[in-house]
Known about the structure:
This protein is mainly α. Helices cover 62% and strands 4% of the residues. The chain has a two-stranded antiparallel sheet.
Amino acid sequence: MRWGIECLYGVIKERLKVDNFTGKTVISVKQDFYATIFLIGLESILTQQAEMQLFEKSRQNQHRQIVNNMVSFNAIKNFLIELFYHCLPIQKVMATLTDWFIKDPTYLKRKREVLRKKSSARVSLNYYKRVYKPCF
Length: 136
C-alpha cells in the first residue's frame, strides 16, 4: 500500500539527489529540500496533459505509456526561466515541454507482483536476538 510513497522517496533521494546540498547552513539545506519538493509538484502539474495524450495513444497497447520522469525533470530544468519570466509566450513553452514529455515515454507494466518470503519464527527470533542493533 505504501509502494507509491516509497517510489517517490526513491525519486527524491536517488534521481534528484536531495542529499547533494549546495551549502552547509540550515537555511541552504532547507532551501534545497523545498526546491526539490517544488520541482516534483511542478513536474506533476506540467505533465498532466502529456499523460492524457500518452494514455489515449497507448490505449490499445499491452503496456500503457507514461511520461519518463527523468526526461520531464530535464525539460523543466532547461525551460525554468521561460516558465517563470515569460521570455517566450507561455503557450509556446507549454507546447514545447509537452512535445519533450511525449517524445521519450516509458512503459507502465501492470500486474507485476513479487511475493515476499515469510521468514519463520525461529529465523526472526535469531535476527532480533543476535543481529538487530536498536539505536536510541
